[in-house]
Structures are given as C-alpha cells and as structure tokens.
Amino acid sequence: MVLSLIRRGAGQLLPTRQYFKVVGKVMASSMPRLSPGDPSSYSRPDQAVVTRIHLDLTADFSKQVLTGSVTLGVRKVEEQARQLKLDCSKLDIVEVKEDGSGKSLDWKVGEAGPCGAELTVTLPETKEDMSITLSYSTSPSSSALQWLSPAQAGGDHPYLFSQNQAIHCRAMVPCQDTPSVKVPYTATITVPSPLTALMSALREGDPLSLPGGLTQYKFSQLVPIQSYLIAIAVG
Question: CA-CA distance, 80 to 48, in Å (whole number)?
C-alpha cells in the first residue's frame, strides 16, 4: 500500500504514519500530565481509591439532565491522605457528605480544561474506609450523554444513551475516570413511564411504578469494571 505523503519543511516529505508518530511525541511532551498515573485523569488512586459506586439518578428529558447522587466507597491508600481526587466535567455539584456521620465535607472544583476538571474532596482524618455521597446533576451539554427527540429516535418516545469511552464518564458521574481503577457498581434509575431503562449491569427485580408517572429500575454489576464501561440507555 502506498502511504500518502505530508510535506515537512521545504521540499521534504514524510510518510503519514511517521508524521503522526513525530507529532504525537511533540504533543505528549508539550501537554502536562494531569496525574502521575494517568496523563488524562486528575484522580489519585495511589492516595485514596474508590472501591464501589452506587448511582441514584433520575432522567429528566425536559431539561436533558440526569439528577440525583452517587455514593462512593473510599479507602485511604496512604494513611495520611486528606483528599480524594476525582474527575468531573460540566457537573453541577450540590453537596458532598460522609455517610457514616452525615457531616458535609469540603469540596472544590478546579479550573476546567480539555479533560474536564479536578474535583477535590476533603476526607475525615480519623477514617480509613468510608462512604461518601455527592449530590449533583449533569449538564445538557454533557459529552457523555445523547438526548434524542421522538423524531430523532424514529418513534413516539424520546431516547437517551451514554458513550463514556474513553474519558467521558466524568461528564456523567464524578469518579476516578482512569482504567487503572476497577469497581463494581449498583444503580437506581428513575425514568418517565412508559420508558425503559437499561445499563451495563443486571437488572434486579421488577420495575417499580412511582407517583407522578415515573418508573424505577435497579441494577447491579458485581464484576469490577473501569468507569468508561458504565453505560445507560433509556427509551
């Protein structure tokens, strides 16, 4: 196969594959690493690591957002760790609390960049293992979620689906969005009736009808997976 050629300098031609290797090295050297373990993630699982995830979210098609909370199991890897570093992107964080005591925790979202933003949660000093709940909502412009109208979906109802690979789970869930962290997850998803919710997990029990024309689904994924494999579809 003849490779196309890209001009390099005055009259010099470089094969396309070699060109992109050179450009890739230059870009990699010019872009700062977001963390020691992953250049595209702000998370620091070497300090404090997420061990499990539970989602409790409601799909709001009128606002095109998921609203609710995520509960994270957290274990300190370093005994003196005082912060949990997470990834987020265009998430509206409302509150962060430690479930055992019910106390609110200090948190801060850093400056947004191409890979989202760093979410830092101040951890209790006296606990090594804990459960933390973050209340939040996604953005209508979330890079992880696609909201389709009935006309776009080709039917009578709207449709929602996620695409979290490679680093878009942070636009759906505040998490350690790096492939080095694998966790099991469970979820409670509430959607407008008569829509159905599916996830990259097993459904638990039958759907529950709720007041206000809503239906609630529960899911469980016991196999530890990377964050980008968390997926949802509603339609």
Answer: 10
Query: CA 72, CA 58: separation in Å to the nearest integer?
Result: 18
Paired tokens of 9:
């300098």
Contact 72, 132 (CB under 8 A): yes
Proportion of the chain above pLDDT 70, given as a percent: 87
Q: Which residues contact 10 (CB under 8 A, 6 or more apart)?
A: none
Q: Which of 171, 210, 203, 173 is nearest to 186 (CA)?
A: 203
**Mean pLDDT calculated for residue range 193-205:** 98
Instruction: Output the pLDDT for position 72.
Output: 98
The most distant pair of C-alpha atoms in the chain lies apart, rounded to whole Å, by 72
Query: 128-142: per-residue pLDDT in tens?
Result: 999 999 999 999 999
Q: What is the residue-wise DSSP string for the chain?
A: -PPPEEEETTTEEEEHHHHHHHHHHHHHHHSPPSSSS-TT----TTTEEEEEEEEEEEEETTTTEEEEEEEEEEEESSTT--EEEEEESS-EEEEEEETTT--B--EEE---BTTBEEEEEEPPSS-SEEEEEEEEE--TT-TTEEEE-HHHHTSSS-EEEE--TTTTGGGTS-B--STT-EEEEEEEEEEETT--EEESSEE-S--EEETTTEEEEEEEEEEEEEGGG--EEE-
